[in-house]
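Troubleshooting log. The previous run stalled partway through. Resubmitting the same two chains, unchanged.
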Amino acid sequence: MGSLNIENVKKAFGPVEVLKGINLEVNDGEFVVFVGPSGCGKSTLLRVIAGLEDSTSGRVVIDGADVSATPPAKRGIAMVFQTYALYPHLTVKNNMGLGLKQAGTPAPEIDRRIGIASSMLSLEPYLERRPAELSGGQRQRVAIGRAVVREPKLFLFDEPLSNLDAALRVNTRLEIAQLHRRLKATMIYVTHDQVEAMTLAHKIVVLNAGKIEQIGGPMELYNSPANEFVAGFIGSPKMNFVDGARLGETAKTIGVRPEHLTVDPKSGAWKGTVVHAEHLGADTNLYLDCEKAGLITVRIFGVYDAEPGATLYATPDPAKTYRFGADGKTIK
Amino acid sequence: MSTATRSVSRTIGAHAILLTYTVIALFPVILVIMNSFKSRAGIFGAPLTPPTPKTFDLIGYTTVIGQGDFIHYFQNSLVVTVASLFFVLLFGAMAAFALSEYRFRGNSLMGLYLALGIMIPIRLGTVAILQLMVASGLVNTLTALILVYTAQGLPLAVFILSEFMKQVSDDLKNAGRIDGLSEYTIFFRLVLPLVRPSMATVAVFTMIPIWNDLWFPLILAPSEETKTVTLGAQLFLGQFVTNWNAVLAALSLAIMPVLILYVIFSRQLIRGITSGAVK
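Second attempt completed without errors. Output:
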């Protein structure tokens, strides 16, 4: 229960093609994250899965049944929105129960499910309150609870953490991960934050300009990106890209992650000047203006003292250097 | 006492300007109400003084009430205003919701078409409207007035409300769709409560011209049965003799309902005008 197949889904708003033929298979119980820059079509794809948007062509199949013509409420899905989207005039309890009530579920069953969901999300003390009387984190938990009580085949999350502050975001991320482990349900999660993607997903789908760039596990994407876009998008700070011609390489672009560079004050491959240093405690980010490679970022674990203006030599780890061809694809 | 955020001279200046405006705005209203309580000699002798024991007279009010059907005129005005207001708000909000929520061919053209009425006064079509009402046998009925006023109020209502409806969160409407609410439930239960302040704004802007209108009652429904207050007050205005006591008393009475409705809506009204300025 809870598999999803997307077959050649296209979506156009007038002349603008937002989704250019998406094919995707999600197995039962998987946690899949759609990630990509703003405007890449990830939210549109989620809305097509939810049935809030009709696709221009292609099929959406949930649990073996084509739902392309099924209204959202009958698709067996539940969705959590970025802006919580709680009903302002209903109490927490009624917010959670409304969907079931609409579907004609008997009252004792609704109460039972609300009981389970609210204890899971520690919402019991707030059941009689209205959304206006709750904090942001509590509201998002109610929104998650509203999804849980429906016992859906598919959970859809649309950037659920974007409106929360940094500390709460980490907590709620953890709660979502635990929820997935407990419910063993299929979840699809949209975010533009690659940290959320890396920490939550079994499978990450990287989207760009309406197309899937790569599908894979977090480490797979990190270690063997299919192309320049994925390499640049996954990992923080971003991978350094150097023009191959400047280094005398045959590849169009050479990529090396900031953490795969070492620095030495005396000798190394690329001579450069420190432009800026960010001291984060656990690690230090150095921005070097190199003669050969241009402006690059180096991530050093631990504390490293470097004043702006100092000269340093950076050396890439040859085993962890990526080569990209003129078409942007990784050269194996 | 001057503080960092306030200076005495500026406060006095601001209040002086506001008070002057208040006096100018209220002057005619006060004059009407004041003189309605005076005798004829009092009105012409010293129009600007408040009623004194010597000039105090309720003759205006007794004439108006004694003239028989004034209560009935009031009723007509009220029925016409409330019914038109109801239809303007209902249809205006529904049209606004459709325009702001659904993508369909000709959406923006339809919006422009509906807004056209703001620019073209409905009175230009008076002759055609009259012919239409004669043909459909609606002359001298309140229905005629309600239909015309609904048409008159709709353009502005659609225009203002569709702007406000666009601000209602898409996520909320989508959450409703996923929970299986019908589009009507989403409209009435989720969207309408959130745009209530703007509904109040539209209500006030729609209501006042309808209540005060003389043109259409005079043309479409001048019969005794269907006279509105403004038309009824004309009874006392003659070509050669005007019963000023009665006219002023009638006008004073006509102000009341508008004033009451305005007070009810004003809190919402201010929120409607300022919302969007600050989130």
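Takeaways: Chain A has a mean pLDDT of 91. The CA atoms of residues 40 and 102 of chain A lie 34 Å apart.
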